Every structure is written in C-alpha cells, then in structure tokens.
Amino acid sequence: MRVTRSVIPNLFTLANLFCGFAAIVAAFEGGLSQAALLVVMAGIFDMLDGVVARITHSTSEFGVELDSLCDAVSFGVAPSVILYVAFFQQWHQWGLLVASLPAMAGVLRLARFNVQLTSMEDKLYFRGMPIPAGAFTIISYVYLWHSSDILPASWKPWMIVFVTVLTSLAMVSTVKYDNIPRPSWRSLRQRPVVFSVFLTGVSASVVTGGKALFPFMLVYLIGGAIRHLVLFVRDRSDNDDSVEEADPDPFTM
C-alpha cells in the first residue's frame, strides 16, 4: 500500500468516526455524559482533519467522501441514539421514528453537500444547517438542559420533540448558514461580525460550563432562518415580486 501525506488528515477523520462509535456504545450503556463528550471530541477531530489537509496540501475527493461517511455516524446516528436512550425509548415505535429524524436528515444533508461540491475551498455559507452544528444543538440540549432542573418537568417532552424536529428540518432546508470562521487574522478581517459572534458563543459556553452552548446554537439556527426570510422578502421587493428560478433540488427524482 502506498503511503502518502493524505494519510495524516484521514487519520483525524477516522478518529472522528471512532469517537462517534464510542459515543453510541456509551449511550447504550447509560453513559450519556460520556456520549455527549465523545460527540464533542468527534467535532474537534472533524475540524482538525480539514485544517491538516490544507496545511499538507492533501485535500481530495476521497477525503471529502470519507469525511461525510464518518460525519454520518458521529453527528447523525450518535445524536439519534442519544435522543432515543435519553427519552424516546419510552414511546416505543413512535419514539424510534422521532429519534431517527436527525440521522436521516443529516445523511440527506451530507448527500446534498457532496453532489453540489464544486471546489475544495472553504465556503462562507452552507445550504442547510451543517450536520456537526445539528449534533451540537441536540447533545447540548439533552445533556445540559433536558437532564437538569433548568426546565419544568412538564415542558421537557415537548421541548425535546421541538429541538429534534426543528434541528432536522434546519439540516434539510435551503437556509444559508454561516461556516464557522477559522481562528485566524484573515477570518477576523474578512468577517469581523461573524467571527466576534462565534468567539462570544464559545467563550460563554466555556465560562458557563457548557450551559450557554444550547442557547447559542438556537441563536445560530433561528438567526439563519430569520436572515433568510428577510433577504427573501427584500429580493422579492427589489425584483417587483418576480420569483427567482429555484436552485436544483437533489432530493427530487
């Protein structure tokens, strides 16, 4: 087997997959806190594989496909398993269906991303909420809010369904969501507002022991939808109510 420099970022990608698999095992063994932490670790490896690939100039279509397969497990299947173990298993078949929504939406989201990929460069925006962001929204709610006394007990069944369905819809939507800016001066100069917002969210999450992560992810999710709606209304007004031709939808056959 020929060993090339692309092996290095691929090892980070496989570490992402291992963390996702370990999170599933931990969830079924009742360790929801360990499972949530492992999903976060998978997110760190997912970020590092792209950084390392660019540093080593080894980005490739193979790396993109491998990354998507690993993301499907770590940020699609693992959060769905965590949801099922944490709450939805008591709903039996219906619970199984609802808990599977993030996994199905995440896989559709990744498939659409791959068929629409035109370059290896970092994108400023994603069409639909990125699957790692969806996973962080779910695990931050389940581990830090649903399992605590922050919310009244009567709210929790409705809230977990709301978070599950809303996150799944956001992933398969056509709403534009900001890509996470790289920690560099170039990113700060290019998008100072976005950089500042993400830095504030990360800092608040660290200071609060993670409790601010879920509100921050909700702001990211809902904020993207509000911006999309405002731009849609403005564009219709500027074009005298003419409808722009829709982008091709890979979900339709």
Quote the average pLDDT.
Answer: 84
Helix content estimate: 55-70%
Shape estimate = globular
- What is the total tally of β strands? 2
Which structural class do you get from the secondary structure elements? mainly alpha
What is the CATH superfamily?
A: CDP-alcohol phosphotransferase transmembrane (TM) domain
What count of helical segments does DSSP give?
Answer: 10
- The poorly predicted ranges are 240-248
Sheet-strand content, in percent, reads under 5%
What is the third-level CATH name, the topology? Four Helix Bundle (Hemerythrin (Met), subunit A)
Elements, N to C (H/E): HHHHHEHHEHHH
Query: What is the distance, rounded to the nearest whole angstrom, between the alpha carbons of the first and last residues?
Result: 39 Å
Describe the structure.
Helix 3 (61-86) runs antiparallel to helix 4 (92-99). The longest helix has 26 residues, at 61-86. This protein has 253 residues and is an all-alpha fold. Helices cover 70% and strands 2% of the residues. The termini are far apart. The radius of gyration is 19 Å and the shape is globular. It has one domain: CDP-alcohol phosphotransferase transmembrane (TM) domain (Four Helix Bundle (Hemerythrin (Met), subunit A), Up-down Bundle), CATH 1.20.120.
Topology, please?
Blueprint: H1 7-28, H2 32-55, H3 61-86, H4 92-99, H5 101-115, E1 125-127, H6 131-146, H7 156-172, E2 176-178, H8 185-190, H9 192-207, H10 213-238
Antiparallel strand pairs: 1-2
